[in-house]
Amino acid sequence: MSVGEPPPRRRRTQTRRRLLDAAAALFDERGTIGQSVEEISSRAGFTRGAFYSNFATVDQLYCALHREQSVIVWARLHEALGQEVAAATADDDDLTLDDAVGRLLDTLPADRDWFSLRTVLLAKAAADPEFAESMSIDRGDVASALGERLAAFARAHGRTPVVTPTALAKSVVAAHVGAVGLAPVDADAAHTRRTVVAAVIRGLTEPSTPPPAPR
Angle at CA 69, nearest 5°, toward 45 and 173? Predict the structure, then answer.
């Protein structure tokens, strides 16, 4: 290895990063995941060999890009949910569920890139069971962990979930992603997202029963 040359592991990490960035740029330009290995490699400044040393297929690359973006989104959402629970339990009389949902959604990406890629990947998953398995939201504890945070969020606003945390999380995500998908034809997309997500949380919860008054 030449003096000043990064070690193999770092080089591979840098190569992978450039391939992911190239794929993201091509998706932004074309709105599809139908690019060839050659196109992605060329955009990243590499050969096919560099691509195949990191990914087996273009589909695998785009799944990796989606997972990477998802980690960022879920991390933001988890942090924001914790902040909203803390704010609600601070006895702020002016804080409503709708206000909290609005602030929560403001923490998510303002652009549609992640959601657009997710929509394209889901369309492919609908026709390819093996590919669908690789994207399953039931793998790991993502849905259940998010659901627990959402349940705490609901309870902080005086409501108790009537479904499992996982079902609550899936429902809220489905409502939000669906509303984002309408954004290009919705003149008031932000209001729609807030209304739909708040409605789902209300619909899947009930008012918490206050403890009996001491005698």
Answer: 150
Overall domain count for the chain: 2
User: For residue 162, how many other CB atoms are within 10 A of its CB?
Assistant: 11
Amino acid identity of residue 13, one-letter, is T
Query: Largest Cα–Cα distance of the chain, in whole Å?
Result: 81
pLDDT band of 210, cuts 50, 70, 90: low
User: Tell me, what's the pLDDT at 177?
Assistant: 81
Q: Which domain holds residue 47?
A: 1-55
Condensed to tens digits (0 to 9), the pLDDT of residues 20-79 reads 999 989 988 888 888 999 999 999 999 999 999 999 999 889 888 888 877 787 888 888
Residues 201 and 120 in one domain: yes
CB 162 within 8 A of CB 175: no
Contact 73, 108 (CB under 8 A): yes
Please say which residue of 11, 34, 55 terminates a domain.
55
93 and 198 together in one domain: yes
pTM value? 0.75
173 and 194 housed in the same domain? yes
Assign 159 to helix, strand or coil.
Answer: strand
